[in-house]
Amino acid sequence: MENFKKIGVLTSGGDAPGMNAAIRAIVRSALDRGVEVVGIYDGYRGMIEDNMKLLGSGDVTNIISRGGTVLYSARCDEFRYEEGMQKAIANCRKHGIDGVIAIGGDGTFRGATDLSNRGLPTIGVPGSIDNDITASDYSVGFDTAMNTVVDMCDRLRDTCESHARCNVIEVMGRTAGHIALRAGIASGASAVCINELPFDEEACMQRLIAEKESGKHSFLVFVAEGNGDFGEQLTKRIEERTGIETRFARLGHVQRGGIPTLEDRFTATQMGAKAVECLLAGQSNVVVCKRGNDIVTYDINYAQNIDRMYKHKLSDEQIAALDPAVRAEMEAFCKMRLDQITELYNLAYEVAR
Ligand code: F6P
Description:
alpha/beta; Rossmann fold; 3 domains; seven-stranded mixed sheet; four-stranded parallel sheet; 47% helix; binds 6-O-phosphono-beta-D-fructofuranose
């Protein structure tokens, strides 16, 4: 801890409600330990362009309840190249930054590894509405996004009910179906389509027909994004096949904004404080994760490999090269995640009946 006098904090990738709560926790926890905090604006681009400012406790007053990120966020191609990274590290050194906490998703953690490997200790905090950091049960922003979706779908339900319609609703999540599944269950969806599991379109049609025949007046079908115009196509097919007038709604970026829920403020605070504690204790290249009720850390490379394995992005050669014990552990982890999704998927259909 004596080695650390100043740390940097940045947000990168898609913003998420609760990122501000994490920033606040990081600033306050560090100051509490006598360590200064530099806010790095616009993610990794701000590191390269030297867009940084020392943050005092007052700079984070009242941001816990604000959506978005006060440090702004950006995607930065230049940071992928050695020259960009070296520029970024030189700027951090110039400001006396001894370590960095990067809040974001997968791409943000790749950047964190690049910095750690080049001698600047860096720790990741998961911030993404998608909740798609496989190693962590939770990523900051997920709960608020789901509540936003449920709120909007309650409104769609009202108008569907009045007009005896069906609404196909496409929600965000990149390739992950967590938002679609949970918000679908909470909105009383008739069917949910996600990328992780096969979708039985005929069963969906039969269900809608049966629901209509039983006197039901409104129908919601959730589709996770990541399949081009599948949602629009499904909308047309539902109308043709069932005779129910059907509309399509892509909820889009509205899901990324808004006042963070208690869950997001709370978890962001826990994760931010943990990141400071770990960085000052000498940890580097780790990501702060939630497992059950615990806030833990995983090596970023390990976490990213689990992520890739879960998303079928590891080649056979890469899998074969893994230590057998590590491989078994990772496979068990991925199975556990898929089992969780499958359980929710079954629940969604069970309660729609
Ligand atoms: O990762 C968050 C997310 O909102 C995804 O759900 C979505 O696919 C993507 O970002 C949209 O990215 P952009 O803001 O660049 O359009």
